[in-house]
């Protein structure tokens, strides 16, 4: 972090920054807690101001009724950690408009956490590094799920597809992301991240671990080489998905029919309940969307679908003064 010898306000206080925070898909099937991808849609909007008093004032501009107590709010916890790093010289006022539904498996908490970190950094004249922003934002993820994971946070901040090679120390690898289409369905059911973690097996057979390592390596190589066939072959999870998929009605049918329709593959987004599929062509992505809609309609479960792309930019400033 750059040394700050004087007040960080320097003409910034009284102004504001408006940022757009993308949804993310974590795990990317086989890369549990280490791979993540930013989506062009949906996204949250956050407006941040610096204030003189060392406190965080939160206003929600959506219908999700999230806590406004800073210590209980994902964005609030991140901003408090930024303030602590800067010796509580100032505070923040933040307005949050969430369009990524909490509990969707699309990185809703990460969008709030990453958006808060990036917006604060903008107001503080970009004094923090990318790695420091990820560290700040991970405090929000710990509040949301009990675990400081970065597979949603990092692509939300940087855009594209990212590999978290290590958390301690933090080691982020930006991967090449070919121009693929992403179809997402969010069934309106609840799967808590904490619950989805608790049902995971504590021990893994060596043969399963070897197969999983091959898929992770193949997926990373597929992105780097823009080899869509290799990406498709590598979108297989023999450890996490078989357990978690039982929490999501229609999952197996969606995956099978989507691949039959031409999707490269896909799986659970984060801990669910959302499901994503990657496709080379937009027409195929829309066919997959129709399959998802038909299956959840037959199941009598409300849903929301998106046909989008990989966002090459993470949290971005859309207005500032």
Account of the 3D structure:
The protein is α+β, with helices and mostly antiparallel strands. The protein has two domains: 17-175 and 311-320, 2-Layer Sandwich (Ribosomal Protein S5, domain 2); 181-309, Alpha-Beta Plaits (2-Layer Sandwich). The chain has ten helices and eleven strands. Mean pLDDT is 92; it is low at 1-12.
Task: Give keywords.
Alpha-Beta Plaits; single chain; 7-stranded mixed beta sheet; 321 residues; disordered N terminus; globular; 2 domains
CATH-derived architecture of the largest domain:
2-Layer Sandwich
Secondary-structure element order, N to C: EEEHEHHHEEEHHHHHEEHEE
Shape by Cα distribution: globular
User: Could you tell me the mean pLDDT?
Assistant: 92
What is the number of domains?
2
Helix-residue proportion? 25-40%
The fold-level CATH name of the largest domain is: Ribosomal Protein S5, domain 2
- As residue ranges, the low-confidence spans are 1-12
Structural class: alpha+beta
CATH class of the largest domain: Alpha Beta
In this structure, how is the largest beta sheet organized? 7 strands, mixed
* Number of separate helices: 10
Number of strands: 11
Strand content: 15-25%
Q: For the CA atoms, what is the radius of gyration? A: 20 Å
Please report the distance between the alpha carbons of the first and last residues: 24 Å
